[in-house]
Amino acid sequence: MLTLVSVILFWHLSAFTFPASPPKDQSIQIALLLDTSNSMDGLINQAKSQLWKIVNELAAAKCTDGKRPAIKIALYEYGNDNLSSQEGYIRQVSGLTDDLDLISEKLFSLSTNGGNEFCGQVINSSLRQLSWSTSSNDLKMIFIAGNEPFTQGGIAYRTACGLAREKGVVVNTIFCGPFDEGMRTNWKDGADITGGSYMSIEQNRKTVYIPSPYDDRISTLNEKLNRTYVYYGSNGASKKELQAAQDSNAETYGQANKVERAVSKSSHAYRNSSWDLVDASKENEAIVAKAKDDELPKEMKGMSVPQRQQYVKEKAEERAAIQSEIQSLNKKRQEYIHSHTPKEESDTSLDAAMIKAIKEMAAQKSLHF
User: How many Cβ atoms are within 10 Å of 360's Cβ, its own excluded?
Assistant: First the structure.
């Protein structure tokens, strides 16, 4: 009789679907593997000019509980004769980091030369060298871009992509050339192993920026935003200079691109707690008191602890107001850009290919935009 009751109870309970608990503290981890051989100047230019647009799309992601996932990006170059042959012409430019100014700096330092492009080996290196999350809730993606056969090198791409699948890392492949040629040279097969996306782009295509009536105001706000950063620590002053340098780098591709960076700086994705007291105090208020006087900006030297705390609080409030205004203006800016973008613009650029793949996979991790 007890057995029958148990069976009936189980049958009734199985008819209901219990909602799963929403994943907590999710993150997005992306490794960008770029071919820097001679023919890839266009690809590198696209990456430099589209970094902040990609960051802005990532920053728009939300978890099911409304929180924003942490974002980390890593960068590799491969296929460049200036790199060590013993390492397979591969170099880790940056590990997974939330220091977006560092990623920008490293990206702008890349140059092209010669090359043997070993796709399987660079994927394998990124999987073994980077500190990938072990959580199945996190979105972990590799984007590898190049234009030579996917089969080259001593480590088979099937072996490398098989390792990625074991680690829960999705490999997305971006062939710089005709779609069918990428199919013939196994780029699609590499993506299929992990359930990733295969895409082809025109690597020499120039990024099209649509100027908007809101760009000048956002640029002005960006200058004000920079003045809210309060450096501390032994490398604080140099990191503050790096921030300004990356503004300048973004502007080399036009004011509209600098505006994209300003929008990124107004989002949660742009964090600088390692050198900025405003961000650092959000994580640990004690840092404001502990910072060495001789490692602070001149306007803070000699301040008492209460004076420091008040100064940082005022800068934090000022920053929040500026960031809020930038975000508000950017909504109008995006509407303007959408209505003025030529219809012939398609998924044939690096940023469009990456954003499309990210959004498709994000849905599987309960992330939405």
Answer: 13
